[in-house]
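Private note to self, pasted from the team thread so I don't lose it. Backbone tokens:
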């Protein structure tokens, strides 16, 4: 194996978690609960639900905004929250994306109420 292939293989191993440590503690070791919620790369359903709740508590958000926050399937996560007792209003709006394309009928979600005992 030549040196270029060895370097590529070493890079693969690091990306797959077998290549040693950087010496910096991971976010999950510093504060596992808080950092898991804030991690923009996590696709875990519970993390996405926490992001959705935090976003909707600040203000209404539409589908494209929620996707930019790391929520890959906003409608599914809203459905999960409704099943848990949250009241979320949905309105249809027209938005313009970053490429200046108009999107008609995009869902705008507004948190109206939370289940009892949730702060």
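Design output:
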């Amino acid at each position: 194996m030549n040196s270029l292939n060895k370097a590529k293989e070493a890079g693969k191993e690091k990306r797959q978690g077998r290549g040693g440590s950087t010496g910096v503690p991971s976010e999950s070791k510093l504060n596992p609960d808080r950092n898991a919620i804030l991690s923009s790369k996590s696709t875990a359903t519970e993390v996405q639900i926490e992001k959705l709740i935090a976003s909707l508590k600040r203000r209404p958000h539409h589908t494209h905004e929620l996707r930019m926050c790391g929520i890959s399937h906003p409608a599914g996560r809203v459905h999960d929250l409704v099943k848990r007792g949250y009241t979320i209003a949905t309105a249809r709006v027209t938005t313009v994306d970053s490429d200046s394309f108009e999107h008609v009928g995009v869902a705008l979600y507004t948190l109206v109420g939370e289940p009892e005992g949730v702060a």
